[in-house]
Design brief:
single chain; alpha+beta
């Protein structure tokens, strides 16, 4: 019985280490935002607003200031930046892409692991939109 519990504990620790230390493949996450209107899913959220280049710069500053968040790829000059935000306890990664073109800012946040983020990505985007208004 102890051996079974020890083996189970090792598997759990390895799984948590894999999640916390995993690096996102930029080509999978730093992609154009496809949607054209606000949407919420079980593990993702999209917000679309009218904006200016200054709005995009403010969005970048907001995202960069979030706890446990760093830019993964992109730049203001490119017109698209993808960020990775990790949950505090287990380090689950969420990816947020903010894109500006032709007077429109799109922000798309999604989870990497699991089926539901319990509304975390929607809340992150709601905070971003509130900061921009």
């Amino acid at each position: 019985m102890r051996m079974f519990l020890g083996f189970g504990l090792i598997i759990v620790v390895c799984a948590l280490a894999y999640v916390r230390l995993s690096q996102g493949d930029i080509s999978n996450w730093h992609v154009p935002v496809a949607g054209t209107q606000d949407a919420d899913g079980a593990g993702d959220a999209l917000r679309v607003i009218a904006a200016t280049p200054e709005t995009f710069a403010t969005a970048d500053a907001y995202m960069a200031a979030l706890p446990r968040t760093k830019a993964l790829a992109g730049s203001l000059d490119e017109g698209r930046i993808t960020y990775i935000t990790r949950s505090q306890v287990f380090g689950f990664p969420d990816y947020t892409t903010v894109e500006y073109a032709d007077g429109t800012l799109k922000a798309y946040a999604r989870l990497r692991y699991g089926q539901s983020d319990l509304g975390v990505n929607r809340e992150r985007l709601e905070g971003l939109i509130a900061a921009l208004q």
